[in-house]
Amino acid sequence: MRAQEEAGCTEKARTREEGNDNIAQGWFSPGQVFVLDEYCARYGVRGCHRHLSYLQDLMEYSENSSLVDPTLLHYSYAFCASHVHGNRPDGMGTVTVEEKEQFEAVRSRLMVLLEDQITHFRYCFPFGRPEGALKATLSLQERVLMKDITTPVPTEEMKKLVQMCLERAAQINYNQLLEYAQLKVDPEAPPEKRLEDMMRLGELCIEVLQQNDEHHSEAFSWWPEAMAEHSETFLSLYTADMDAALQGQPVDSWDCFPLFQLLNNYLLTDSHLCNGTFHKHLQDLFMPLVVRYIDLMESSIAQSIHRGFEQETWQSVNLQGINLPDIFNGTATSEDLFWKLDALQMFVMDLHWPEPEFAKHLEQRLKLMASDMMEACVKRTKSAFDSKMQKSSKSTDLRVALSVCTMFNVLMDAKKQCSKLCVLDTGQETDKQWQQYHSKIDVLIDDTFKEMIASLVSKLASVLDGVLSKLSRYDEGTFFSSFLSFTVSPAARFYCFTPLLCLSQSIELKTKQLLCSPHASPSPTSPPYLPSICPPSRLRPPPSTWKFL
């Protein structure tokens, strides 16, 4: 008995020496193992007593936050369990009462220690270090749960234990995170400060979950549901603080959308959390806000169109980042409209709404809204153009104003933006009703464009017709009046103006050069005055229309 006590003291001294060395992690050196083996063999120290003493010392150091290799614990515990259950690992068939009592005490103590390490896995095994230690701890826990060495532990029992440990771990991890971030939930704090705290806390929660997935998920690979439940429990604690912060935000405040984007973008990348409990709660929380925001933006854009075109001066604006003269740009109202529609669609797209049906509904609603707004813009532009043509002079002092060019620019911009803002993604335009609605705005723009060109050509033709009528009566009654008559038939006049109709296909370039002020420099490919568009022979009336005495 005294030899066993001396052996225990000797091994305890060796254990204390190795316990202070975190690199050894409790393992003896080959020389130390040789000394202990010789001592135990010489004085007849039983192997079970030796390993029980070793386990008690290792657990003591582990409880004091010293790093002990779980494989070493597993080896000694397996030896003692095999001996107690009569398998004779050291050749001895007898089991003393003292050994059995010590084994049961060590087993209970080891089970508590392992549960505590699994619960504090982020702090006992930071960043998965030592490598494989957490997996070895779970394996040892399963070995300790075995009632004998032959009967395996039921799967549900081990799973239930792991779930219990991870549930406690979620609460511990969240409290530690609050302390680390130095955040205190204060209901009296300003709404902006509370929302800012939730953004920062959300970023930290995502970082914790990412670290768990990167460094610890492999060890829990046998229980993926338990790890997913741990993440949901962890996020449920964050949910309570997030809901309280959002409820304190002012009505119609949209500063909370970045929080949704932050959380939703992460949840979409996690197969276990995507469309889980927290994700669905997040969608239910923000869905009314998204609908409300789109309703208000639609009303705001409609009012801006109504007020903007009422006060529109039809002066082209200088667009930043676009290297074009002002004459090639639209008005302030039209450019603001296209920018708002594009920004709203980009905002909804960046939300990456996870529920497919609602996401499709949002996209279709925005496309329909863009079509309606563009239709209103085109009609208001056409109305202003008609009013401008009615007020324009019919005499030879007619000059096409720069505002008319701007109106053509608005239609051209609407045509370009229509393909971007009013068309669904490929594969979604399967509904005939939707296709008809989409083609409606294209037909409206094309018809309006043609009507405006025809109206402008008609105005120029009426002026020129008046000039020719005056010239036909020049010096009437003299002998040479017939030679000075330039009256032509309507067919010949139409023949002269055929080139103007050809300009409709390239109105963005040629019409703007044709209608620009005299101060603008002519293009080398398209002269600035009308008669040079076609050969002089075509402008001369046919001989059949000449009049002679």
- Secondary-structure-derived class: mainly alpha
Could you name the ranges where pLDDT drops below 50 across 5 or more consecutive residues? Answer: 1-7, 490-549
Fraction of residues in β-strands: under 5%
Overall domain count: 3
CATH topology of the largest domain: Tetracycline Repressor, domain 2
Calculate Rg over CA atoms. Answer: 43 Å
Provide the helix percentage: 55-70%
DSSP helical segment count: 20
Q: Under the CATH scheme, which architecture of the largest domain would be assigned? A: Orthogonal Bundle
Overall number of strands = 0
The biggest beta sheet reads: none
For the record, what CATH class of the largest domain applies?
Answer: Mainly Alpha
Question: What order do the SSEs take from the amino end to the carboxyl end, as H and E?
Answer: HHHHHHHHHHHHHHHHHHHH
Principal-axis shape equals rod-shaped
Mean pLDDT: 81
Distance between the termini: 154 Å
Explain what this protein looks like in three dimensions:
The protein is mainly α and 549 residues long. Helix content is 67%, strand content 0%. It is built from 20 helices and no strands. Helix 1 packs antiparallel against helix 2, helix 5 (97-119) packs across helix 7 and helix 13 runs parallel beside helix 15 (402-421). The longest helix has 41 residues, at 432-472. The model is unreliable at 1-7 and 490-549 (pLDDT under 50).
